[in-house]
Design brief:
Elements: E1 29-39, E2 45-56, E3 66-68, E4 71-72, E5 75-78, E6 88-89, E7 91-92, E8 95-96, E9 98-107, E10 112-114, E11 120-124, E12 133-141, E13 146-154, H1 155-158, E14 159-163, E15 166-169, E16 173-180, E17 182-189, E18 196-201, E19 206-210, E20 216-222, E21 225-232, E22 240-247, E23 252-259
Parallel strand pairs: 1-13, 11-15, 17-23
Antiparallel strand pairs: 1-6, 1-8, 2-3, 2-5, 2-9, 2-10, 4-7, 9-12, 10-11, 13-16, 14-15, 17-20, 18-19, 18-21, 21-22
Length: about 260
């Protein structure tokens, strides 16, 4: 995730890349991640067409206050793919600090339901939801903090039988917000090597970035834990590994100057 405020739905086990230049990072911004998950339902598939994700920074419901996230992954998502703790990336954006009151999912028209007997039927969206599915969030975004917003989509409760073999989609979604404020920063020397930087957790999840022209680097959005930091230059002779880097919640761990091998 390059320097940005993430509203994301991340799939479990995904290699997540995040880079933030300490000199070029947007002042007064934080990272928000929005993730999509599901509670199990008694169907083969519950396919929801998600076209856009928006946030609202005001207390009112004024349409002019909605902001569309600039990096959306639109498509048809089978909610049952994200049961049992799995989730997936939906969107990301660079947002200023401050309060966010609501989040809204804009749905498309290609919503379908696959029954246990293999029958595929249309999921109709009630006209009252034509403006999108609005969810209360009430998050206060702080600088240099990554926020994970998990949208727990209850497939079983969201599908309503109308009779005559027809079904409505009336989304029931629970929002869960978690702040992740850990990170690692430092300075590589010589700066001209401009290495790629990979931060690897004990579970082998990888977050990555690059040092800027001055050698400074900042990797944000890390959970508390112990990491291995690897520096990869264009010429492998300059590579370096720093092990057992401990990051605490709400802490940016400073590695100081990391001297890369000259030869």
């Amino acid at each position: 995730m390059r320097k940005r405020y993430f509203i994301t739905f991340l799939m479990s086990g995904l290699v997540w890349f995040s880079s933030c230049d300490s000199d070029n990072d947007t002042n007064g911004s934080a990272t928000m991640q929005v993730r999509l998950t599901d509670s199990p339902g008694d169907y083969e598939e519950v396919n929801v067409d998600i076209q856009s994700v928006q946030i609202h920074k005001e207390d009112s419901d004024d349409e002019s206050g909605w902001q569309t996230l600039d990096e959306i992954h639109p498509g048809i998502y089978n909610l049952l793919d994200f049961a049992n703790g799995r989730d997936t990336l939906l969107a990301s954006a660079n947002l200023p600090t401050g309060a966010i009151s609501q989040i809204r999912l804009i749905l498309g028209e290609n919503n379908t339901l696959k029954l246990k007997d293999g029958t595929l039927v249309e999921l109709k969206t009630p006209s009252g939801q034509s403006s999108g599915v609005k969810l209360q969030l009430n998050a206060n975004l702080k600088e240099d903090v990554t926020y994970v917003v998990l949208l727990d989509f209850d497939a079983a409760k969201s599908v309503v039988a109308r009779g005559n073999g027809q079904y409505n989609l009336k989304p029931v979604v629970r929002t869960i917000t978690q702040a992740i404020a850990g990170g690692i920063k430092g300075k590589v020397s010589p700066a001209e090597y401009k290495p790629g930087i990979y931060v690897i957790s004990a579970a082998s999840d990888t977050t990555g970035g690059f040092a800027n022209d001055n050698g400074d680097f900042l990797i944000k959005g890390l959970e508390a834990g112990t990491y291995t930091v690897k520096f990869y230059a264009a010429d492998s002779v300059h590579n370096k590994t720093v092990e057992n880097v401990t990051v605490s919640q709400d802490e940016i761990k400073d590695l100081g100057t990391v001297e890369l091998p000259l030869q």
